[in-house]
Amino acid sequence: MSQLRLLPSRLRVQATGLLATRGISERNWRSRSSGPPAAFPSGLGGGSSSYMEAMYSAWLENPQSVHKSWDSFFRKAGEEAPRAAPEGRPVPSGRTTTSKLVEDHLAVQSLIRAYQIRGHHVAQLDPLGILDADLDSFVPSDLITTIDKLAFYDLREADLDKEFQLPTTTFIGGSESTLSLREIIRRLESTYCQHIGLEFMFINDVEQCQWIRQKFETPGVMQFSSEEKRTLLARLVRSMRFEDFLARKWSSEKRFGLEGCEVMIPALKTIIDKSSEMGIENVILGMPHRGRLNVLANVIRKDLEQIFCQFDPKLEAADEGSGDVKYHLGMYHERINRVTNRNITLSLVANPSHLEAVDPVVQGKTKAEQFYRGDTQGRKVMSILVHGDAAFAGQGVVYETFHLSDLPSYTTNGTVHVVVNNQIGFTTDPRMARSSPYPTDVARVVNAPIFHVNADDPEAVIYVCSVAAEWRNTFNKDVVVDLVCYRRRGHNEMDEPMFTQPLMYKQIHRQVPVLKKYADKLIAEGTVTLQEFEEEIAKYDRICEEAYGRSKDKKILHIKHWLDSPWPGFFNVDGEPKSMTCPTTGIPEDVLTHIGTVASSVPLEDFKIHTGLSRILHGRADMTRKRMVDWALAEYMAFGSLLKEGIHVRLSGQDVERGTFSHRHHVLHDQEVDRRTCVPMNYLWPDQAPYTVCNSSLSEYGVLGFELGYAMASPNALVLWEAQFGDFHNTAQCIIDQFISTGQAKWVRHNGIVLLLPHGMEGMGPEHSSARPERFLQMSNDDSDAYPVFTEDFEVSQLYDCNWIVVNCSTPASYFHVLRRQILLPFRKPLIIFTPKSLLRHPEAKSSFDQMVSGTSFQRVIPEDGKAAQAPGQVRRLIFCTGKVYYDLVKERSSQGLDGQVALTRLEQISPFPFDLIKREAERFPGAELVWCQEEHKNMGYYDYISPRFMTILGRTRPIWYVGREPAAAPATGNRNAHLVSLRKFLDTAFDLQAFEGKTF
Ligand SMILES: Cc1ncc(C[n+]2csc(CCOP(=O)(O)OP(=O)(O)O)c2C)c(N)n1
Ligand SMILES: [Mg+2]
C-alpha cells in the first residue's frame, strides 16, 4: 500500500482527472466498497492510485471481496517476474511490481491521451513534405517518436511487449481489451500521426469525443471496396482532366485551377453522397475562386458547353447588367445522385471576389430553405462552405459566421467546411499571414472538430469527408476538413510563383500528380488495369471535346442560366415580371383595427407583463380607437397585413425584438416566469404566415449577409435587417456593395431585402447620427442627366430599372405603405429605409387610418397641402426636404407666420428620383424660388444626389438653392450646443426670403 502511495504525483493527477471524465468521484467509488464489488475500470487503465490502493488492500484481505476483474489484475501482477531496475530506481519487491504495473498502466493511459490530443502535430500532412501544417516543427515530448521518448513515462524498451489493459476512451483495440505497448503505439501512430491529423479533444462533450475516436481509431475502418476505389479514381480523373482541358484550350486565361488539390472534387462528392444517403435533399454551397469551375462541372454538373462558352470573348450577353467573371457565377441544379439514386438539389451561391463574404449568405439561404420546408433539424437541407487557407484565417466574417451557427434563429444545424489549404495565399507565406498554428483554428470557438488530411492520400481524404458528413448529420454541428495540399501553379495561371516561393515551387515541380500516384497504387494492387485507367481518361477527354464543339455553336451568353436561386412561378417563362403594375397598398379598416387590437393585447393567459409595457399597450389601444398610428404601430400594420396575405416576415438585427429605442416590443416577457415569452404578431389570424423576430449576435457583416441569403430563397417574404444605428451598417459594407447594390447587375438575381437604418441629427454626436444616405445615393444607378420619358407606369418601370430603392419616410403611413409596396411589386429590389429616432415618439409624427385604408398608396412625394397650396401664386419659396427636418421646418414656418408664402414638399422616395412628381410640384408654384433643405452637412445627406436631377427636370431654368449645415468631415458635432446653433442657423436661412437675392447659379 505504501508503495502505491508513492505513485508519482503527475500520474495521480491524471488518474483523478480520468475518474472525473467517467463521472466517478473519489467519494463515489469509496462508497461502492460497501456495496457489490466494483468492476475493474478498464477505461482507467487501473484508475487512480488511491482507488487502486483501496482495491488492492481489499484484495489482499480477501480476493473474493473485489470484482473478478480486479482479482485477475492483481493476480497477474503478482505473477510478473521482478525485472531489472533502471539506474537509480529501487529494486522492486513483489508489492513494488504491482506498483510498477499500476504506474505503467497509468503511463500508457496518458500516452494514449497524448496521441489523441497532440498526435496531429506530427501527422504527415504536407504532401510536399517541406512544411509543418501547424507552422511548428516542434515534436511534443509525450509522443513516442523515438524509443528514448518512453522514458517520459518511466517506460522502457522492455515494456514494449507487455500487455496493457486499454481504457474505454480508446478504440484502438477493436475487440481486444488489452494490447502490447508496441501495438498500442503503432495503432496510435497509424490513427493520429499518418495522413490524418485530428483536432477534437477540446470538445467538452464526451459522447462526441468518443464518437470521433471510434470513427478513426477502430482498426480497419479505412478500408475501401474496389468499387469505391474505382469511383474515387474516376472522380480524380475528371477533376484533373477538366483542368488539363481548360489549360490546353485557353492557356492564357485565368481560371484559378485546382491543380494540387484535385482531390477536392471527390471530397465534395463524398460529402454530398454521404449526406444524401442520410436523407439530405438540398445542398447549398459557397466557395471562392479556386477550383470553382471544376466544382460547377464535376460536382454540380453544369453543362460543360455552358462553362466553355464563358471563355469565348466574342459572345454577346443576352442579359442586362454587368454580368460577372466566370469564376464568380452561381448555379442551381436538381438531379439524381448517382450513388444513392435519390433526388438532390445542388446550388452554388454566386459570390464576389471578396473572400468569405458569401459565408453568411449561404447560411441565410440554407436557413430559409430549411424554414420553408419545416426542416427544423436540418435533416433535408444543409450547407457546405469551401475556404482558402489564407482567407479562412484572415477574414473576420468567418468568425462572425461561426457565431451564428448555434443561435436558434440562425443555425443551419451544422455546416461542413472544407479548407483548400494550399499553404499559400497569393504570394504570402502562412507564417506571415496568420498567428494561429493552423488556418482552421477559428473553428475551435464553436467546438467544431477539425480533421486535417494530406490531400495526396485520396483514400484518407474520402474517409475524413465521409466522417465529416456523418458528424454533421449526427450532431448537427459544424465540422472542418482541412485539405492540406499545394498549388501547382501561381495564384492564377498567369502568375510566376518562383519570384516569391522558390523552394516550395522547386518541390512542387518535382511533385508527382495525385492522379498518377493513386492510379499507380490501384494498378499495383490490381484494382484497375492500366488500360482501364487510360480508357477512363480518354472517355472524359472525349466528353470535354464534344462539349467544346457544341460550345462553339453558342452565340449568346445567358447569365440567367447561372442563377443560384430561381423563384419558380414568380416571373413569367422568359424570366420577366408578370406585370408592370403595382396594386394600391392600403388595406381595409377592419384589418387595421384588428391588428391594432392584437398589437395592444397579451394573447396568452396568465402572462404578466411589465407595467411600463402595459402603458405602451394601452397607448396602442387608444391610438387604434382613435384610428391613429405611430411608427411602431404602422410597422405592426404592415407586417401583420402581409402575414395575413401569406407573406412570411422576418426581422433580424441587434435588439430588434424590443427595438433599440424601446418602441417596438414585439416579444413580450413574462415578468414572473423565466424565459416565457409571447409574440402577439403570431396571434393575428389562425392561417397567417409565420413571423420571426430575432435579436442577432453583435455582428453586422455576418447578420446582414445572412439575411440577404435568407431573402434570396423566396420572393414571398419580407426580410428586414435593422442596424442598431444606421452608421453601423458600414461594418457590413462589403455585403452592401458587393451583393445588395450590385447583385442583380452581376448575377441577374433579384433580392427584396429591406435595410432599416436609424438616421437623424439629434445632437447625439458624430456616431449614432448618420446612416450615410449619400453613400447609398451615390451608388444608385438612375441617370441624373437623362430627361425621363413619363409613361403611365413610370413609377413601376423606374423601380424595375433601379438597383435599389432609397426612402426616407416622414410619416408612419408612408413607412407602412413602402413596406407593403415592397411585396406587392411584381419584382424584387433591395429597399433602404432611413428610419427615425425622435420621430418614433414625436406627437406630430402620427398618421390616421384614412392614410392607410384601401385605395391609399405609398406617396413618393408628399406635396404641400396647407395654406400655401390654396394660393400657389402667392408662394415665394418652395422648400423640398426629406425625413425628420420637415417637422422642424413646419414649426419654424408657422412661428414665422410664413404658411402662405413658403410651401414644403417632402420626398419620401429619394431614389429612384421621382422626376415626375418633382416636376409637377415645381410647376405648381411657378413664382417660387426652389430650395433644398437638409439637416445633414452639405457634403453628406442628399444634396449631391438631388441637385443634378433637379437641374435635369427644371431644364436648368431655375436654381435649387442649398440650405443646411456647412460641409464637414464628421457627420455631426459632439457638442449639443453647437448642434442647436447650426440648426437655428439653417432654419433662419430657410425662411429668410431674401437669402438668395442677387445670387447667380
Ligand atoms: C477580402 C479580399 N481581400 C483580398 C483579396 C485578393 N485575393 C484574392 S485571392 C487571395 C489569396 C487567397 O488565398 P487563399 O485564401 O489561401 O486561397 P487560394 O488562392 O490560395 O486558394 C487574395 C489576397 C480578395 N479576393 N478578397
Ligand atoms: Mg491558399
TrEMBL record:
Q: Which InterPro entries match?
A: 2-oxogl_dehyd_N, 2oxoglutarate_DH_E1, DH_E1, KGD_C_sf, ODO-1/KGD_C, THDP-binding, Transketolase-like_Pyr-bd
Q: What is its EC number?
A: 1.2.4.2
SUPFAM superfamilies from the entry? Thiamin diphosphate-binding fold (THDP-binding)
A single GO CC term for this protein reads: mitochondrial matrix
Enumerate the Gene Ontology biological process terms. glycolytic process; tricarboxylic acid cycle
Residues passing through the membrane, by range: none
Start and end residues of each Transketolase-like pyrimidine-binding domain: 629-842
What keywords sit in the KW lines? Calcium, Glycolysis, Magnesium, Metal-binding, Mitochondrion, Oxidoreductase, Thiamine pyrophosphate, Transit peptide
Q: Which cofactor does it need?
A: thiamine diphosphate; Mg(2+)
Subcellular location(s) per record: Mitochondrion matrix
Record GO terms (molecular function) = metal ion binding; oxoglutarate dehydrogenase (succinyl-transferring) activity; thiamine pyrophosphate binding
Q: Which reaction does it catalyse?
A: N(6)-[(R)-lipoyl]-L-lysyl-[protein] + 2-oxoglutarate + H(+) = N(6)-[(R)-S(8)-succinyldihydrolipoyl]-L-lysyl-[protein] + CO2
Q: What is its main location?
A: mitochondrion
For the region Disordered, give the residue spans: 77-97
Q: What protein family is recorded?
A: Belongs to the alpha-ketoglutarate dehydrogenase family.
The UniProt function text for this chain reads: 2-oxoglutarate dehydrogenase (E1-like) component of the 2-oxoglutarate dehydrogenase multienzyme complex (OGDHC) which mediates the decarboxylation of alpha-ketoglutarate in the tricarboxylic acid cycle. The OGDHC complex catalyzes the overall conversion of 2-oxoglutarate to succinyl-CoA and CO(2) while reducing NAD(+) to NADH. The OGDHC complex is mainly active in the mitochondrion. Involved in the inhibition of cell proliferation and in apoptosis.
Subunit text: The OGDHC complex comprises multiple copies of three catalytic enzyme components, the 2-oxoglutarate dehydrogenase (OGDH/E1), the dihydrolipoamide dehydrogenase (DLST/E2) and the dihydrolipoamide dehydrogenase (DLD/E3). OGDHL/E1-like isoenzyme may replace OGDH in the OGDHC complex in the brain. The presence of either ODGH/E1 or ODGHL/E1-like isoenzyme in the complex may depend on its tissular distribution.
Q: What is this protein called?
A: 2-oxoglutarate dehydrogenase-like, mitochondrial
What species is given as this protein's source? Chinchilla lanigera
Gene designation per UniProt: OGDHL
